[in-house]
Each structure stands twice: as structure tokens, then as C-alpha cells.
Amino acid sequence: MKVIDASAFIDSVSHGERGPALGLHLEDDLFAPDLLVSEVLAFFRRKLQQGKLTQAEADDLVQRFRRAPIEYLHTWPYAEQIWQWRHTMTAYDATYVALAADLGATLVTSDLRLARAAAGLVPVIAV
Questions:
Q1: Which of 2, 113, 4 is nearest to 13 (CA)?
Q2: What residues does each domain of the chain span?
Q3: Is the CB of residue 70 less than 8 Å from the CB of residue 30?
Q4: Residue 77 exposure: Cα atoms within 13 Å on the Cβ side
Q5: Which of 101, 127, 122 has the alpha carbon at shortest distance from 112?
Q6: pLDDT tens string 22-65
Q7: Class level of CATH domain 2-36+69-126
Q8: Which one of 4, 11, 22, 102 is least enclosed by Cβ atoms within 10 Å?
């Protein structure tokens, strides 16, 4: 069981150099806080506006995202834990860590800052 963050999901679908390595770690039951939806779509929108994606490429990525086998869980139950970790990570990052901790899952991320902050709290795979 794994919790995937936005950085790992984006890297896994964007055909970047980390994609193949991430793919090896995503063959499991995947979970994410519902926050993932806003973070991923905001990233695709930004890349579209910057001209780094065509409309067709962005639409394809959104459809791939919608088909991804990820089970989404609400973030509000983790508010207290997220707040407690405010000194060591952002609320966004703490949401992924709190979910992983609650599920007893491994966090999969491409964000090395998040990986360092989560070390010792949950198992982490940083690619």
C-alpha cells in the first residue's frame, strides 16, 4: 500500500527521466488525499499557460490522471496532525504524510524536501 504525492504522479505521467523508476513503485494499491486532484490539475494548467504543453497534451494528461487507479481520501480528518507538523513541512506536504501514517503506507514522492521531512515518520520512497 502506497500514498502517492503530486510530484510523483506528475513525474510518472510526464515521460520525464524519473518516470520509469517511479513506475516500478506504483504497482501497488495507491492512495492519495483528495488534495492531489487540485495540485495535479493546477500543475497541468500552469504548464499549458506557459506554453510547455499543447491543449491536446494537457487534455491527454488530464484523462490519464482521471483513469489512474488511485483511491482518494478526505483531508479534513488529518487537520490536527497537519497542524502539528507545521514547523517541519507545509500543510500540503503534511497531508500526504498524515495519510501515509494513518494507513501504515509508504509515501512515494519525487520531492526530496518532503522525503527528508517525512523520514522517520513514515516509510518513504524518493525517486
A1: 4
A2: 2-36+69-126
A3: yes
A4: 11
A5: 127
A6: 666 667 799 999 999 999 999 999 999 999 999 999 999 999 89
A7: alpha beta
A8: 102
